[in-house]
């Protein structure tokens, strides 16, 4: 979509917000005709206080990354190591979510179905052809769902398959997060329920007559629960459906515009040693807001509202003047990179409109980092004139 019509779609969310000076303003040299205007750099009290708190507590500033910008990218309110890669932990789930939304669409329903490609001899209970499992990677599919469908296959008169057992696409269920592992366990279920066939499963395409199927909830609903509660298993299975960590990386580079050096992913849930720069996260959030806007959606449709929604942000930023003003994704890895805590998303402010931010902390205690993150966000909202009256929680109430 030409990078989602560049940033013009983002600007549809802004109504020419007034700009008020902070403590000090540094103006960059005028941009040339061939370049975008350089962003206006604000030196905020919030930023200084945050850095001072980190230093006073003995946490290395080299282990911290921050970038806070206006939605249109014209103003910078905080910046520290924004081009250095840090572990985003579960904030990675927003990248996985964006990739899935772009590939499938928000109202997409994953379908899992069994097909018979051949004639069924009900006297001998034999399928003279192939039994095909059409799978699109339903991240919520359970063994109970599969058993129901398998019993319907048996009820259709199939106990023996003279052909092959074919799986058409990404397939996961329960805790089996990869197609090969899930398929192996499914074969055992088929045998226990009395369905026999020669050889082992193989990849193929859909053909024949549908016997039974199962549809998931909409993708947007799946992603909201995944992100609000930070469900690793769902994110790994959504990741398998879109093609794995490398597919998410390719999407961020090719479609969003991150430099290849800005991102390195090993897990689509954020487990282990992933890397992304604060700049890359802010760029992704900005494009995500634009994409959602083009599809009549808001960030709070796929991410939790702080202090409002159940999940990892329910008990954070709960004071009345901030409650509902922040939509974000948390990340926590206490045992990785010396302790990782992250927070990235959008804050709704009165004077500067939606503000996009990424705060990535490592090599320290996650509970302390969370308190400092919340303090920085609260202070920034206050410096930006307070929370926007039409906050995230109000947006959701009106939907």
Structure description:
This protein has two domains: 2-86 and 277-398, Beta-lactamase (3-Layer(aba) Sandwich), CATH 3.40.710; 109-218, D-tyrosyl-trna(Tyr) Deacylase, Chain: A, CATH 3.50.80. It is 34% helix and 23% strand. The chain has helices at 2-5, 8-11, 45-56, 92-104, 143-155, 179-192, 219-229, 232-242, 245-256, 278-294, 366-383, 392-398, and strands at 24-26, 40-43, 64-70, 75-80, 109-121, 126-135, 160-161, 165-167, 196-197, 202-203, 209-218, 263-264, 275-276, 326-333, 340-349, 353-361. The strands form three sheets. The chain has a seven-stranded mixed β-sheet with strand order 1-2-4-3-16-15-14, with helices on both faces. Strands 5, 6, 7, 8, 9, 10 and 11 form a seven-stranded mixed β-sheet that branches. The longest helix is centred in the C-terminal third of the chain and has 18 residues, at 366-383. The protein is elongated, with a radius of gyration of 24 Å.
Based on the model shown, name its key terms.
single chain; 399 residues; alpha/beta; Beta-lactamase; D-tyrosyl-trna(Tyr) Deacylase, Chain: A; 2 domains; seven-stranded mixed sheet; 12 helices; 16 strands; 34% helix; disordered N terminus
The value of Rg in angstroms is 24 Å
Mean pLDDT: 90
Tell me the fraction of residues in β-strands, as a range: 15-25%
Total of domains: 2
């Amino acid at each position: 979509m030409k990078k989602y019509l560049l940033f013009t779609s983002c600007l549809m969310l802004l109504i020419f917000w007034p700009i008020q000076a902070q403590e000090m303003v540094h103006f960059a040299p005028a941009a040339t005709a061939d370049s975008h205007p350089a962003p206006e750099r604000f030196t905020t009290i919030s930023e200084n206080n945050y850095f001072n708190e980190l230093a006073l507590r003995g946490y290395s500033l080299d282990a911290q990354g921050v970038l806070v910008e206006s939605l249109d990218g014209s103003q910078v309110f905080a910046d520290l190591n924004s081009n250095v890669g840090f572990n985003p932990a579960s904030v990675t789930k927003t990248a996985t979510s964006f990739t899935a939304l772009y590939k499938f669409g928000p109202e997409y329903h994953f379908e899992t179905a069994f097909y018979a490609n051949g004639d069924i001899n009900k006297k001998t209970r034999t399928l003279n052809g192939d039994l095909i499992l059409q799978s699109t990677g339903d991240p919520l599919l359970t063994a109970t769902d599969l058993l129901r469908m398998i019993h319907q296959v048996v009820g259709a008169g199939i106990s023996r398959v003279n052909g092959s057992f074919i799986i058409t696409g990404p397939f996961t269920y329960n805790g089996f997060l990869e197609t090969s592992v899930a398929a192996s366990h499914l074969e055992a279920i088929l045998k226990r329920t009395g369905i026999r066939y020669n050889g082992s499963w193989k990849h193929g395409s859909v053909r024949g007559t549908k016997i039974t199927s199962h549809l998931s909830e909409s993708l947007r609903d799946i992603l909201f629960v995944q992100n609000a509660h930070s469900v690793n298993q769902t994110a790994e299975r959504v990741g398998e459906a879109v093609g794995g960590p490398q597919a998410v990386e390719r999407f961020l580079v090719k479609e969003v515009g991150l430099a290849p050096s800005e991102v390195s992913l090993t897990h689509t849930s954020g487990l282990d040693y992933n890397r992304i720069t604060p700049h890359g996260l802010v760029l992704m959030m900005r494009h995500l807001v634009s994409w959602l806007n083009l599809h009549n959606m808001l960030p709070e449709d796929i991410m939790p509202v702080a202090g409002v929604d159940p999940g990892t942000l329910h008990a954070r930023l709960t004071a009345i003047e901030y409650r509902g003003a922040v939509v974000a994704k948390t990340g926590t890895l206490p045992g990785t990179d010396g302790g990782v805590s992250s927070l990235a998303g959008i804050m709704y402010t009165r004077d500067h409109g939606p503000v996009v931010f990424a705060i990535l902390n490592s090599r320290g205690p996650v509970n302390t980092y969370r308190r400092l993150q919340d303090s920085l966000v609260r202070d920034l909202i206050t410096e930006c004139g307070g929370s926007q009256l039409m906050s995230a929680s109000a947006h959701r109430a009106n939907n």
